[in-house]
Structure prediction request, 300 residues.
Amino acid sequence: MPRTLDPELRRALAARIRYYNEMGIYDFYRQPLSDRSGEGPISVDEAEIAISINQPESGEEMNPRKAAAVAMPVATEGDENIFEVIALKPEQSVSDPVKALKMIREDLGDCTRCVLHKQGRKQIVFGVGDPKAELMFVGEGPGADEDEKGEPFVGRAGQLLNNMIKAMGIEREQVYIANIVKCRPPGNRTPERDECATCSPFLMRQIAAIKPKVVVALGAVAAKTLLAMNASMMQLRGRFYDFRPAGVRSNNPDWDGCKLAVTYHPAFLLRDPRQKGEAWKDLQMVMKELGMKAPAKGAE
Ligand code: SF4
Prediction:
């Protein structure tokens, strides 16, 4: 017999999960309710214990496989999946990624969800590129040039990213580029963890709408936020991760997530050009995955 939750309990749980989402907690994992010891109707607290919050402690390193596994809770057979109901976003009813991205942008609105909205941003920098791109680049946040133009990666670091993309044998217009936070942190500081947690669900929705084959995280902030793990760049680079955008489902059942690779942020490469060769190795790994022919020369 399929098990259904009492509507009252369901509403209470939905409210509790929304509350966690507002605090920046999006990843949960489920324990079978059959493990419960008590008799009688399930209480909200009991059900909440069964849906445990999965937040790594500060400094704790989360296993990448675990991060991928918790990124999209999966219903067990015959069991009601409250997450699917809660995570259903407006764009999930449309299959066209152009329309889906437009709906996500509309939902974002003139966002005031985190403090970055009142710390001098000129505009929200949503993302740019091919809505059907096979390859996505995700950076940290807009800088002054990006804030001015409303487009990610248009300053010096953007120029280098363009060169990196060109070196792969493709054009900037063929990929999609976005950031973890969509508003410029003052003085180009690193976005705070809570700012990343508040803004990144919109990026997750963008990824689910675009359905790329590979996401490249540019720098540690992007990598740590997307993978929900705390590790050094040295530990993060050099391999692929199975990635599913946290908290959302793609409207295409054939898209079950993608590969994610980590490389250096172009701004870091401008400061330390000796690492360009390492970044090029990362991009070659991505090209191989995408079946792209490696040009003879790397990024300048
Ligand atoms: S950074 Fe993101 S969450 Fe914060 S105000 Fe800007 S759009 Fe909203």
Residues 108, 111-114, 116-117, 124, 181-183, 195, 198-199 surround iron/sulfur cluster (CB under 6 Å). The chain has twelve helices and eight strands. Strands lie at 28-30, 51-53, 128-129, 135-139, 176-179, 214-218, 241-243, 258-263.
